[in-house]
Amino acid sequence: MRMSKFTTQTGGFTLVELLIAMTLGVFMMAGVLSVFISSKQSYAQQDALGQMQENARFALEMLARETRMAGFGGCSSSINVANTLSAGYVGEATSFSNGLNGYLGDSTNSTFPASFKSVSEPNTDAIIIHTVNNDGALIVDSHNPNSAIIRFTTSNSTLKKGDIVVMVDANCSNMAIFANTGPTNSSNNANHSNHNDGNISGFSYENCVKKKLKGNFTCADTSAGLELSYTAGSSVYKMDSFAYYIGTSSADSSILSLYRQDVSGTSGASEVVEGVSDLEMFYGLKVGSNVQYLKADGISATNWINVQSVRYNVTVRSLSLINGVPVSKTFSTTVKLRNRG
Protein backbone atom coordinates (compact mmCIF):
# COMPACT_ATOMS: atom_id res chain seq x y z
CA MET A 1 0.00 0.00 0.00
CA ARG A 2 1.25 3.43 -0.85
CA MET A 3 1.13 5.95 1.95
CA SER A 4 0.11 9.50 1.15
CA LYS A 5 2.22 12.25 2.63
CA PHE A 6 0.33 15.20 4.07
CA THR A 7 1.99 18.50 4.73
CA THR A 8 0.47 20.84 7.32
CA GLN A 9 1.33 24.49 6.98
CA THR A 10 1.17 26.72 10.08
CA GLY A 11 1.54 30.47 10.20
CA GLY A 12 1.12 33.48 12.60
CA PHE A 13 -0.82 36.71 12.31
CA THR A 14 0.11 39.01 9.58
CA LEU A 15 1.42 42.49 10.33
CA VAL A 16 -1.85 44.01 9.19
CA GLU A 17 -3.83 41.79 11.54
CA LEU A 18 -1.56 42.71 14.45
CA LEU A 19 -1.93 46.39 13.72
CA ILE A 20 -5.72 46.06 13.58
CA ALA A 21 -5.76 44.14 16.89
CA MET A 22 -3.53 46.70 18.56
CA THR A 23 -5.67 49.55 17.29
CA LEU A 24 -8.83 47.90 18.62
CA GLY A 25 -7.09 47.29 21.96
CA VAL A 26 -6.06 50.92 22.20
CA PHE A 27 -9.63 52.03 21.56
CA MET A 28 -10.95 49.63 24.19
CA MET A 29 -8.40 50.77 26.80
CA ALA A 30 -9.18 54.39 26.01
CA GLY A 31 -12.87 53.67 26.64
CA VAL A 32 -12.13 51.95 29.92
CA LEU A 33 -9.86 54.80 31.04
CA SER A 34 -12.47 57.35 30.03
CA VAL A 35 -15.13 55.60 32.10
CA PHE A 36 -12.69 55.31 35.03
CA ILE A 37 -11.69 58.99 34.91
CA SER A 38 -15.30 60.10 34.54
CA SER A 39 -16.36 57.94 37.50
CA LYS A 40 -13.49 59.24 39.60
CA GLN A 41 -14.37 62.87 38.81
CA SER A 42 -18.02 62.21 39.51
CA TYR A 43 -17.15 60.59 42.83
CA ALA A 44 -14.86 63.49 43.79
CA GLN A 45 -17.56 66.01 42.92
CA GLN A 46 -20.22 64.13 44.87
CA ASP A 47 -17.84 63.82 47.82
CA ALA A 48 -17.15 67.58 47.74
CA LEU A 49 -20.87 68.34 47.57
CA GLY A 50 -21.48 65.96 50.45
CA GLN A 51 -18.82 67.67 52.57
CA MET A 52 -20.29 71.08 51.84
CA GLN A 53 -23.88 70.08 52.54
CA GLU A 54 -22.99 68.21 55.73
CA ASN A 55 -21.01 71.16 57.11
CA ALA A 56 -23.74 73.63 56.12
CA ARG A 57 -26.45 71.49 57.74
CA PHE A 58 -24.47 71.20 60.98
CA ALA A 59 -23.63 74.93 61.09
CA LEU A 60 -27.23 76.02 60.48
CA GLU A 61 -28.64 73.51 62.95
CA MET A 62 -26.27 74.67 65.69
CA LEU A 63 -26.97 78.34 65.03
CA ALA A 64 -30.72 77.75 64.90
CA ARG A 65 -30.87 75.67 68.08
CA GLU A 66 -29.02 78.23 70.18
CA THR A 67 -30.64 81.29 68.59
CA ARG A 68 -34.10 79.98 69.51
CA MET A 69 -33.05 80.11 73.17
CA ALA A 70 -31.78 83.71 73.06
CA GLY A 71 -32.90 85.63 76.13
CA PHE A 72 -34.39 82.49 77.67
CA GLY A 73 -34.86 82.61 81.42
CA GLY A 74 -37.92 80.44 81.77
CA CYS A 75 -40.43 83.25 81.14
CA SER A 76 -41.39 85.69 78.39
CA SER A 77 -39.29 88.70 77.41
CA SER A 78 -41.80 91.07 79.04
CA ILE A 79 -40.64 90.09 82.54
CA ASN A 80 -39.26 92.78 84.90
CA VAL A 81 -35.48 92.64 85.26
CA ALA A 82 -33.60 93.78 88.37
CA ASN A 83 -29.93 94.11 87.39
CA THR A 84 -27.76 94.87 90.43
CA LEU A 85 -24.36 94.66 88.71
CA SER A 86 -22.30 97.78 89.35
CA ALA A 87 -20.63 99.98 86.75
CA GLY A 88 -17.38 98.08 87.29
CA TYR A 89 -18.88 95.08 85.53
CA VAL A 90 -18.00 95.10 81.81
CA GLY A 91 -19.20 91.63 80.81
CA GLU A 92 -22.16 90.49 78.74
CA ALA A 93 -24.70 90.27 81.58
CA THR A 94 -25.54 93.93 81.05
CA SER A 95 -27.05 92.92 77.70
CA PHE A 96 -28.81 89.77 78.90
CA SER A 97 -32.28 91.30 78.47
CA ASN A 98 -31.50 91.91 74.78
CA GLY A 99 -31.31 88.18 74.14
CA LEU A 100 -28.73 88.78 71.44
CA ASN A 101 -26.46 91.41 69.92
CA GLY A 102 -25.34 91.43 66.30
CA TYR A 103 -22.21 92.92 64.76
CA LEU A 104 -21.77 94.01 61.14
CA GLY A 105 -18.41 93.06 59.66
CA ASP A 106 -16.20 95.55 57.82
CA SER A 107 -12.57 95.69 56.70
CA THR A 108 -11.39 95.76 60.32
CA ASN A 109 -14.54 94.46 62.06
CA SER A 110 -14.42 97.73 63.95
CA THR A 111 -17.62 97.20 65.98
CA PHE A 112 -16.71 93.69 67.21
CA PRO A 113 -15.99 93.09 70.92
CA ALA A 114 -12.31 92.92 71.83
CA SER A 115 -12.66 89.28 72.93
CA PHE A 116 -12.76 88.06 69.32
CA LYS A 117 -12.18 91.12 67.12
CA SER A 118 -8.54 90.29 66.35
CA VAL A 119 -9.23 86.68 65.35
CA SER A 120 -12.36 87.22 63.25
CA GLU A 121 -12.31 87.35 59.44
CA PRO A 122 -12.83 90.87 58.00
CA ASN A 123 -16.15 91.61 56.28
CA THR A 124 -17.98 88.73 57.99
CA ASP A 125 -20.75 89.26 60.56
CA ALA A 126 -20.83 88.01 64.15
CA ILE A 127 -23.47 87.49 66.84
CA ILE A 128 -23.52 87.12 70.62
CA ILE A 129 -26.38 85.09 72.10
CA HIS A 130 -27.40 85.49 75.75
CA THR A 131 -29.17 82.70 77.57
CA VAL A 132 -28.93 80.62 80.75
CA ASN A 133 -27.38 77.25 81.46
CA ASN A 134 -30.62 75.30 81.79
CA ASP A 135 -28.80 72.03 82.60
CA GLY A 136 -27.51 73.40 85.90
CA ALA A 137 -30.70 75.00 87.23
CA LEU A 138 -30.99 75.26 91.02
CA ILE A 139 -34.39 75.36 92.72
CA VAL A 140 -34.98 77.94 95.44
CA ASP A 141 -36.19 76.65 98.80
CA SER A 142 -36.31 80.09 100.44
CA HIS A 143 -35.06 83.65 99.91
CA ASN A 144 -34.41 86.25 102.59
CA PRO A 145 -33.67 89.70 101.08
CA ASN A 146 -32.59 91.15 104.46
CA SER A 147 -29.82 88.59 104.97
CA ALA A 148 -29.20 88.32 101.17
CA ILE A 149 -29.34 84.52 101.33
CA ILE A 150 -30.95 82.25 98.74
CA ARG A 151 -31.27 78.66 99.96
CA PHE A 152 -31.57 75.78 97.50
CA THR A 153 -33.45 72.50 97.74
CA THR A 154 -30.19 70.58 97.16
CA SER A 155 -26.56 70.79 98.28
CA ASN A 156 -24.86 70.36 94.92
CA SER A 157 -24.49 73.95 93.75
CA THR A 158 -21.42 74.64 91.58
CA LEU A 159 -21.78 78.43 91.88
CA LYS A 160 -18.54 80.16 92.80
CA LYS A 161 -17.88 83.57 94.27
CA GLY A 162 -18.04 86.15 91.50
CA ASP A 163 -20.25 84.07 89.18
CA ILE A 164 -22.96 86.04 87.39
CA VAL A 165 -26.33 84.58 88.36
CA VAL A 166 -29.84 84.83 86.92
CA MET A 167 -32.76 84.13 89.26
CA VAL A 168 -36.29 83.84 87.84
CA ASP A 169 -39.34 83.90 90.07
CA ALA A 170 -41.55 80.81 89.82
CA ASN A 171 -44.54 83.04 89.05
CA CYS A 172 -42.63 84.82 86.25
CA SER A 173 -43.11 88.19 87.91
CA ASN A 174 -39.42 89.09 88.02
CA MET A 175 -35.87 88.23 87.04
CA ALA A 176 -32.75 89.23 88.96
CA ILE A 177 -29.20 89.47 87.60
CA PHE A 178 -26.51 89.67 90.29
CA ALA A 179 -23.03 88.58 91.28
CA ASN A 180 -22.79 85.62 93.63
CA THR A 181 -20.84 86.90 96.66
CA GLY A 182 -20.41 83.54 98.36
CA PRO A 183 -19.76 80.99 99.55
CA THR A 184 -16.41 80.15 97.93
CA ASN A 185 -17.74 76.63 97.32
CA SER A 186 -14.46 74.96 96.32
CA SER A 187 -16.04 71.50 96.75
CA ASN A 188 -19.17 72.22 94.66
CA ASN A 189 -21.48 71.35 97.53
CA ALA A 190 -23.04 74.67 98.52
CA ASN A 191 -26.71 74.76 99.51
CA HIS A 192 -27.12 78.53 99.20
CA SER A 193 -26.02 81.71 97.44
CA ASN A 194 -25.39 85.22 98.75
CA HIS A 195 -26.14 88.52 97.03
CA ASN A 196 -24.50 91.05 99.35
CA ASP A 197 -23.48 94.48 98.14
CA GLY A 198 -19.98 95.93 98.45
CA ASN A 199 -16.56 94.75 97.31
CA ILE A 200 -16.10 91.15 96.12
CA SER A 201 -12.47 90.24 96.81
CA GLY A 202 -10.63 89.47 93.60
CA PHE A 203 -13.23 90.99 91.28
CA SER A 204 -13.62 94.45 89.75
CA TYR A 205 -17.40 94.50 90.10
CA GLU A 206 -19.97 94.18 92.85
CA ASN A 207 -23.72 94.38 93.55
CA CYS A 208 -24.83 97.97 93.95
CA VAL A 209 -27.70 96.99 96.27
CA LYS A 210 -28.28 94.14 98.69
CA LYS A 211 -31.97 93.81 99.49
CA LYS A 212 -33.53 94.92 96.20
CA LEU A 213 -33.80 91.98 93.83
CA LYS A 214 -37.25 92.73 92.46
CA GLY A 215 -38.58 95.51 90.26
CA ASN A 216 -37.30 96.78 86.93
CA PHE A 217 -34.02 98.67 87.31
CA THR A 218 -30.24 98.88 86.86
CA CYS A 219 -27.57 100.40 89.09
CA ALA A 220 -27.93 103.69 87.22
CA ASP A 221 -31.25 104.16 89.03
CA THR A 222 -32.36 101.74 91.74
CA SER A 223 -35.41 103.73 92.80
CA ALA A 224 -37.76 101.19 91.16
CA GLY A 225 -36.21 98.33 93.14
CA LEU A 226 -38.34 96.34 95.58
CA GLU A 227 -37.20 94.58 98.76
CA LEU A 228 -39.29 91.47 98.15
CA SER A 229 -38.35 87.79 98.30
CA TYR A 230 -38.50 85.28 95.46
CA THR A 231 -40.99 82.48 95.97
CA ALA A 232 -40.11 78.87 96.69
CA GLY A 233 -39.69 76.97 93.45
CA SER A 234 -37.94 79.87 91.70
CA SER A 235 -34.96 78.96 89.51
CA VAL A 236 -31.32 80.06 89.72
CA TYR A 237 -29.04 79.70 86.69
CA LYS A 238 -25.55 80.56 85.62
CA MET A 239 -25.64 83.03 82.76
CA ASP A 240 -24.31 81.96 79.36
CA SER A 241 -23.22 84.31 76.60
CA PHE A 242 -21.44 83.00 73.53
CA ALA A 243 -20.36 84.45 70.21
CA TYR A 244 -20.38 82.98 66.72
CA TYR A 245 -17.89 84.38 64.21
CA ILE A 246 -15.71 83.37 61.25
CA GLY A 247 -11.97 82.84 61.74
CA THR A 248 -9.00 81.04 60.22
CA SER A 249 -9.06 77.27 60.66
CA SER A 250 -6.56 75.89 63.15
CA ALA A 251 -5.99 72.86 60.92
CA ASP A 252 -5.46 74.67 57.59
CA SER A 253 -4.71 78.39 57.37
CA SER A 254 -5.99 78.49 53.78
CA ILE A 255 -9.60 77.88 54.82
CA LEU A 256 -12.04 79.56 57.23
CA SER A 257 -14.20 78.06 59.94
CA LEU A 258 -17.18 78.86 62.15
CA TYR A 259 -16.13 79.49 65.77
CA ARG A 260 -18.13 79.51 69.00
CA GLN A 261 -16.62 81.47 71.88
CA ASP A 262 -17.75 81.62 75.49
CA VAL A 263 -17.77 85.34 76.30
CA SER A 264 -19.27 84.99 79.78
CA GLY A 265 -16.77 82.48 81.14
CA THR A 266 -13.25 81.20 80.61
CA SER A 267 -13.67 78.23 78.25
CA GLY A 268 -12.47 80.23 75.22
CA ALA A 269 -13.21 79.62 71.54
CA SER A 270 -14.00 76.32 69.82
CA GLU A 271 -13.76 75.63 66.09
CA VAL A 272 -17.10 73.99 65.36
CA VAL A 273 -17.34 73.74 61.53
CA GLU A 274 -14.54 73.87 58.95
CA GLY A 275 -15.07 75.39 55.53
CA VAL A 276 -17.54 78.14 56.53
CA SER A 277 -16.21 81.10 54.56
CA ASP A 278 -18.87 83.74 55.26
CA LEU A 279 -21.57 84.52 57.80
CA GLU A 280 -24.19 87.15 57.09
CA MET A 281 -27.18 87.99 59.28
CA PHE A 282 -30.41 89.96 59.00
CA TYR A 283 -32.49 90.65 62.10
CA GLY A 284 -36.29 90.57 62.14
CA LEU A 285 -37.22 93.73 64.06
CA LYS A 286 -40.81 94.14 65.15
CA VAL A 287 -42.13 97.54 64.04
CA GLY A 288 -45.79 97.90 64.94
CA SER A 289 -47.53 94.83 63.54
CA ASN A 290 -44.81 94.22 60.94
CA VAL A 291 -41.35 92.66 60.99
CA GLN A 292 -38.52 94.33 59.06
CA TYR A 293 -35.26 92.49 58.33
CA LEU A 294 -32.28 94.75 58.93
CA LYS A 295 -28.52 94.40 59.22
CA ALA A 296 -26.92 94.92 62.62
CA ASP A 297 -26.13 98.58 61.95
CA GLY A 298 -29.86 99.22 61.48
CA ILE A 299 -30.74 98.07 65.01
CA SER A 300 -30.36 100.66 67.78
CA ALA A 301 -29.01 99.69 71.19
CA THR A 302 -32.48 99.82 72.74
CA ASN A 303 -34.14 97.85 69.94
CA TRP A 304 -32.34 94.51 70.23
CA ILE A 305 -34.98 93.41 72.71
CA ASN A 306 -37.55 93.81 69.90
CA VAL A 307 -35.75 91.46 67.50
CA GLN A 308 -37.99 88.44 66.95
CA SER A 309 -36.04 86.40 64.42
CA VAL A 310 -32.66 86.05 62.72
CA ARG A 311 -32.02 85.20 59.07
CA TYR A 312 -28.68 83.46 58.55
CA ASN A 313 -26.83 83.33 55.22
CA VAL A 314 -23.98 80.85 55.59
CA THR A 315 -21.48 80.34 52.75
CA VAL A 316 -19.74 76.97 52.89
CA ARG A 317 -16.93 75.58 50.71
CA SER A 318 -15.81 72.00 50.28
CA LEU A 319 -12.54 70.94 51.88
CA SER A 320 -11.47 68.98 48.79
CA LEU A 321 -10.86 70.65 45.43
CA ILE A 322 -12.46 70.02 42.06
CA ASN A 323 -10.20 71.02 39.15
CA GLY A 324 -8.12 72.99 41.62
CA VAL A 325 -10.97 74.97 43.22
CA PRO A 326 -13.45 74.21 46.03
CA VAL A 327 -17.18 73.86 45.56
CA SER A 328 -18.99 76.71 47.30
CA LYS A 329 -22.62 77.55 48.01
CA THR A 330 -24.65 79.84 50.28
CA PHE A 331 -27.36 78.31 52.48
CA SER A 332 -30.05 80.28 54.32
CA THR A 333 -32.42 79.77 57.22
CA THR A 334 -34.67 82.01 59.34
CA VAL A 335 -34.91 81.32 63.08
CA LYS A 336 -37.68 82.52 65.38
CA LEU A 337 -36.76 83.42 68.96
CA ARG A 338 -39.02 81.29 71.12
CA ASN A 339 -39.69 83.77 73.89
CA ARG A 340 -40.40 86.74 71.61
CA GLY A 341 -43.84 87.59 70.27
What does this structure look like?
- With about 350 residues, this protein is α+β, with helices and mostly antiparallel strands.
- It has two helices and 19 strands.
- The strands form four sheets. Strands 1, 2, 3, 4, 5, 6, 7, 8, 13, 14 and 15 form an eleven-stranded mixed beta sheet that branches. A four-stranded antiparallel beta sheet has the order 17-16-18-19. The protein has a two-stranded antiparallel ribbon with strand order 9-10.
- The chain starts with 14 loop residues before the first helix and ends in a 5-residue tail after the last strand.
- The mean pLDDT is about 90.
Report the uncertain regions: none
- How many H/I helices? 2
Rg value: 32 Å
Separation, N- and C-terminal Cα atoms: 121 Å
Which word captures the global form? elongated
Structural category: alpha+beta
What proportion strand?
A: 35-45%
Query: How many beta strands in the DSSP annotation?
Result: 19
